[in-house]
Amino acid sequence: MTNHIVSLGIQIVPKSTKHKTYDLVDHAIEVIQKSGIKHQITPFETVMEGHYDELMDIAKNAEQAVLDAGADECLVYYRIHYRKNADVTFEEKRLDR
Prior knowledge:
Largest sheet: 4 strands, antiparallel
Shape: elongated
CATH topology: Alpha-Beta Plaits
Number of helices: 2
CATH class: Alpha Beta
Helix content: 25-40%
Strand order of the largest sheet: 2-3-1-4
CATH architecture: 2-Layer Sandwich
């Protein structure tokens, strides 16, 4: 893999017969926010910036938080951008450059 900074987008789509989807997603977002990792919340996914293993640990914790909050099941979609020999940062992807 890489030891450089990567971008990881995660979309967690919980399913529950008892809880509202957005309420469950809020638990995942809370885990990401409390991690202190650089992130951006968008209407369809949350994108994080950091080292691959650290981001995957946060993502696993976010998924577990949704299950712990009452989801019966989850669909989870990842998008990861990495380079073998260089960092991937939010700043380089800005549209207003």
